[in-house]
Amino acid sequence: MPAPKGNQYAKGCKTSGRPAKLDESNSTEVAEAMIDFFKSKFDTFKDELLEYRTGNREHEPLVDLPFYYEFADEVGISYRTMKYRESGEDKEFHQAWNRCKQIQARYISLASMNGLSNPTFSIFAASNLTQWRKKQQVTGEDDGPIQIEGVEISVQ
Fold first, then answer.
1. CA distances from 148 to 2, 136, 139, 143 (A)
2. Is residue 74 part of a domain?
3. How many domains does the chain have?
4. Phi-psi region of 76 (alpha: psi -120 to 50; beta: other; left: phi over 0)
5. pLDDT per residue as tens digits for the range 138-150
6. How many other CB atoms sit within 10 Å of the CB of residue 148?
7. Domain range spanning residue 67?
8. Residues in CB range of 126: below 8 A, 6 or more apart
9. Mean pLDDT taken over the chain
10. DSSP designation for 35
């Protein structure tokens, strides 16, 4: 179906949809805001945990793990646009994305080591949101199959 007449976003547009809110002009600004968002959640949690452990806080801190979806909603950018930008040629945004993943990993480990999150959830979150795995994964060169040279294997 063609775009409606008078649609200002369709004029000369080779792709569909409105212009992205995340592009080269504001990528650095969004990347910095994303890091600040993740760091502020982690720092707040860490401070509340310290207060709780030292007896200066009555209730244990709320585990409010930062998510990319949450940040995207806060700044008005779709998660898919952010993920597209992260996987593209924008090295700076990619580095910011990875830095936020590291903050997520620290958050998960701190919460789980202090007994503030369900152990099953901690394992699930760590294996899905970070590079942590329950068992060692062995692969060959460039993540390919393991090549063994000089060994004959016969099937009987």
1. 57, 19, 12, 15
2. yes
3. 1
4. left
5. 777 777 777 777 7
6. 8
7. 27-133
8. 105, 108, 109, 112, 132
9. 82
10. H
Q: How far apart are the first and last CA of the chain?
A: 61
Asked, for residue 50, whether it belongs to a domain, the answer is: yes
- 80-127 residue pLDDT tens: 988 888 888 788 999 999 999 999 999 988 888 888 888 888 888 888
The torsion defined by the Cα of 70, 71, 77 and 81, in degrees rounded to 10, comes to -90
Sequence-distant (≥ 6) Cβ neighbours of residue 107 within 8 angstroms: 41, 42, 45, 65, 66
**148 falls within a domain:** no
Quick check: is 147 in a domain? Answer: no
Q: Which residue has the tokens 């008005």?
A: 76
Structural contact between residues 38 and 71, judged by C-beta atoms closer than 8 angstroms: yes
Chain centroid offset of residue 17 CA: 25
Angle in degrees, 0-180, between the axes of helices 27-53 and 91-113, rounded to the nearest 10: 10
**Burial, 109: exposed, middle or buried (Cβ in 10 Å; 0-12, 13-18, 19+)?**
middle
- pLDDT at residue 144 in the model: 75
